[in-house]
């Protein structure tokens, strides 16, 4: 087995040292406790810098300059709020969101939620397929169609990860993604955008999303940032850091240190996404410009640093970002299936099914619309994620607001209010996009 949800996640995540002792010592130094609980936040955050994020950030920056920067910031803050709720649910109850949904809802509702979660996972994997295809196109100079077929090979890589080796590959992927993040931040300094023009983009403006295209990209940013399946995943993997059951003091420790892990990881993802949008706005946005740059042109941003090797570095980083999300998507798929259906299947079969279902729309989209439609297809996949998001948010907010389930760790009135406000805002934005699409 490569990935096994719930308790057996301890092996691939290499947490046996903690699980064996069943204890995080009271006298343990703070930094050591933090390292003990660190990890789940990172695993979640790598999905926030995947090809879908790159595509939406670059399209937003090149088309609207810095006007949609506030969408990136607010989406990331919403993600932090919701991932903290997912983490809290897992630690407080000892069960993940999918398991609790199966236990709390009627079978028909449970099956519907499972189907929607699966659609979200496939939509996410579709973005990894398209991003990987672009990477192969840049590296091997093949067509996107061939690149899409080559992404099927990543199944072999995922199936080759066994036991503690997953942590080593995880570290390699983190290094590659961190490298591209550093490159973008350095490039930000080199390009030197006018911060007087950037700062107004932090102020929410409904006029920037009043038109269909602006709202479409904004919803894509939201879906790329707050991924529905990550809410299921986080509530499961957060329990791999300590043996169950947790005493009161250890549960408080788990909550406090896991909160730090989550916030720091997602703030790093926010910084990278903001940097990509700002760079695209500074480098590509020209008022009245007919040709708008998209993810296929983004490697030009690295040319001042890497020169002729920019395309290769960008492609490798794109593959790394896609692979990191592929790994977490595979784990999320098992968590969702086992939680909702109480059904376990072999990891290789789970991986093959997910990638196979993602390859079909990717191939059809490129063959039908042409290679120039890559960016549009990527953003569309992220819009699908946003449309699924309320169906994961509703049970999450309901459960974390239930004293019967959460006990002393139930949400307070302020946290509950913020959560349901986000639910109304995200649902309203999705409905507005649907209405605009039908009207047009």
Shape: globular
Number of E-state strands: 0
**What's the number of helices?**
20
> Can you tell me the CATH topology?
Hydantoin permease
CATH superfamily: Hydantoin permease
Helices and strands in order, then pairings?
Blueprint: H1 16-21, H2 30-37, H3 40-45, H4 51-64, H5 69-93, H6 97-104, H7 107-140, H8 144-150, H9 154-159, H10 165-191, H11 195-198, H12 212-225, H13 228-237, H14 248-284, H15 303-306, H16 310-341, H17 347-369, H18 374-400, H19 403-406, H20 413-439
List keywords for this structure.
mainly alpha, 440 residues, Hydantoin permease, disordered N terminus
Task: Please provide a written account of the structure.
With 440 residues, the chain is mainly alpha-helical. The protein has one domain (6-19, 28-439): Hydantoin permease (Orthogonal Bundle), CATH 1.10.4160. Helices cover 73% and strands 0% of the residues. It is built from 20 helices and no strands. The protein has helices at 16-21, 30-37, 40-45, 51-64, 69-93, 97-104, 107-140, 144-150, 154-159, 165-191, 195-198, 212-225, 228-237, 248-284, 303-306, 310-341, 347-369, 374-400, 403-406, 413-439. The N and C termini lie far apart (49 Å). Mean pLDDT is 80; it is low at 1-23 and 162-166.
In short:
By secondary structure, this protein is mainly α. The protein has 20 helices and no strands.
């Amino acid at each position: 087995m490569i990935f096994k949800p719930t308790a057996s996640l301890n092996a691939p995540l290499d947490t046996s040292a903690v699980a064996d002792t069943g204890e995080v010592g009271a006298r343990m130094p703070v930094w050591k406790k933090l390292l003990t609980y660190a990890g789940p936040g990172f695993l979640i955050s790598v999905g926030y810098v995947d090809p879908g994020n790159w595509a939406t950030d670059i399209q937003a920056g090149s088309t609207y300059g810095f006007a949609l920067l506030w969408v990136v910031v607010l989406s990331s803050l919403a993600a932090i709020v919701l991932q903290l709720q997912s983490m809290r649910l897992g630690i407080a109850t000892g069960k993940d969101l999918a398991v609790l949904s199966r236990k709390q809802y009627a079978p028909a509702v449970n099956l519907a939620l499972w189907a929607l979660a699966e659609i979200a996972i496939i939509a996410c994997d579709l973005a990894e397929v398209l991003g990987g295809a672009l990477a192969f196109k840049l590296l091997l100079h093949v067509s996107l169609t061939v690149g899409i077929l080559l992404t099927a090979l990543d199944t072999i890589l995922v199936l080759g990860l066994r036991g503690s080796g997953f942590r080593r590959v995880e570290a390699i992927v983190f290094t590659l993604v961190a490298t591209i993040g550093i490159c973008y931040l350095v490039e930000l300094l080199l390009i030197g955008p006018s911060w007087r023009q950037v700062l107004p983009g932090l102020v929410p403006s409904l006029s920037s999303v009043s038109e269909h295209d602006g709202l479409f990209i904004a919803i894509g940013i939201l879906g790329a940032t707050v991924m529905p399946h990550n809410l299921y995943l986080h509530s499961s993997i957060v329990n791999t850091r300590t043996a169950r059951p947790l005493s009161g003091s250890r549960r408080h420790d788990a909550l406090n240190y896991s909160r730090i892990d989550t916030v720091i990881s997602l703030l790093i993802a926010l910084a990278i996404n903001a940097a990509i949008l700002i760079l695209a706005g500074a480098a590509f946005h020209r008022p009245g410009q007919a040709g708008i740059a998209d993810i296929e042109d983004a490697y030009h941003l690295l040319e001042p640093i890497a020169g002729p090797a920019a395309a290769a570095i960008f492609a490798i980083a794109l593959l790394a970002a896609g692979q990191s999300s592929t790994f977490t998507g595979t784990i999320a798929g098992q968590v969702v299936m086992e939680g909702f259906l109480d059904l376990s299947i072999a990891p290789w079969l789970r991986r093959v099914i997910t990638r196979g279902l993602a390859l079909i729309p990717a191939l059809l989209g490129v063959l039908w619309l042409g290679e120039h439609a890559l960016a549009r297809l990527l953003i569309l996949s992220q819009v699908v994620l946003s449309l699924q998001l309320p169906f994961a948010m509703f049970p999450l907010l309901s459960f974390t607001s239930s004293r019967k389930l959460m006990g002393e760790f139930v949400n307070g009135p302020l946290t509950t209010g913020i959560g349901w406000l986000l639910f109304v805002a995200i649902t309203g934005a999705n409905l507005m996009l649907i209405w605009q699409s039908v009207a047009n």
